[in-house]
Amino acid sequence: MPVQKVLVVGGGITGSVLSLALAQRGADVELVEISPQWFGVGHGITIQGNALKALRSVGVLDRVLARAVPFDIMRLRSADGTLITQLDTPHTGGPELPATAGALRADLQDALCDAVHAHGVDVRLGLSVDRLDQAADHVDVTFTDRSTGRYDLVVGADGINSAMRAMIGIDTVPRPVGMSIFRVVARRPAEMDCAEVYYGGPRYKAGYSPISPDQCYAYLLDENLDASLIGPRAPLSLLRERGAGYGGTWGRIVADLPEDTAVDYRWIETVLVDGAWHRGRAIVIGDAAHACPPLIAQGAAMCAEDAVLLAELLTGEEPVGKALETFMGRRLPRVRMVLENSLQLAEWEIHPGTPGADPARIMSDTLGSLTAAV
């Protein structure tokens, strides 16, 4: 029997897409989000074709693309901005969709939030789960405000630092990759028409992507600096200092940033629950189950694919337990491949000159394999 009542914990991309997909298939969905305000956090986001396909399946693609910037190529440049090569990006969502789109996270999340509300999902903000009590055919939940509920299934979509992961009995925890990222939103130069990556400079690499008609997302991949810097307000002077040596459009973007620019700085972490993501009638998905370095830009795609497939299986003909087993059989090999290849790229970035390193091949092979159905 398909599920009737589902609790989704976490209102980011994963939880929003799942809630929307389940509601569209007739399930009674409650979504709880620990933040008292529900909006997109972070800076820019790269949405590959397979993520666009997932967004199309839940009916929000047109709204997202109305503000996003689609493109089918990327350019590699040397640190001074000299063009190395231009590459066609595989159409992982099919030939009828853009290969890639750059977007503001806030624009994507706003589209999802509005659609979730429009489809009747019961959204409760400033709330999370305090306790789970599982039975054979349901889960009783006690929330942090002491209210309770009974559900056919509970889904943890609460990100890489998931509390649900440990709550359902999975002891996997994130680990640092060994690199960090500075991120800013800036004015989009007129000549920027696709993502570009700068190699060979003093740090691992720098790059940018257009994310709206007048904005771009620029970043710098660096070694792990002092943990006290982590947060949404790192010094702009530090970004400029660490990015010295990169010229071209990237150098002009950073030089022209207003002094009050919000600079987000994070250590990059990874996690993979390399086994079943479910315990009884509770499961974690998205970044709570798997999160990879952003070197292939598949994070959002893997999360959205999880959500769409899980909704499809939970509302199909299989019993819940069998549906979860089918889900794992289809998702784990795919996300493991993406994560392992992303980690390999990170290792080559950290240790340049490694014999046999071939980043172009591994990126092409990964994206090429993702054109296959989920």
Can you walk through the features of this model?
The protein is of the alpha+beta class and 374 residues long. It folds into 2 domains: 5-69 and 104-174 and 270-369, FAD/NAD(P)-binding domain (3-Layer(bba) Sandwich); 178-269. 32% of the residues lie in helices and 30% in strands. Strands 5, 6, 13, 14, 15, 16, 17, 18 and 21 form a 9-stranded mixed beta sheet that branches. It has a 6-stranded mixed beta sheet with strand order 8-2-1-12-20-19. A hairpin with a 4-residue loop joins strand 9 and strand 10 (139-143). Helix 1 packs parallel to helix 8 and helix 8 (299-314) runs antiparallel to helix 9. The radius of gyration is 20 Å and the shape is globular. The mean pLDDT is 95.
Largest sheet report: 9 strands, mixed
Catalogue the unreliable spans: none
Could you state the CATH homologous superfamily of the largest domain?
FAD/NAD(P)-binding domain
- Mean pLDDT across residues: 95
The number of distinct β-strands equals 21
Which quaternary structure do these chains form? single chain
CATH topology of the largest domain: FAD/NAD(P)-binding domain
Quickly count the helices: 10
Structural Rg: 20 Å
Count of spatially separate domains: 2
Helix proportion: 25-40%
End-to-end C-alpha gap: 23 Å
CATH architecture of the largest domain: 3-Layer(bba) Sandwich
Give the CA-based shape: globular
The top level CATH class name of the largest domain: Alpha Beta
Task: Tell me the strand percentage band.
Answer: 25-35%
Structural class: alpha+beta
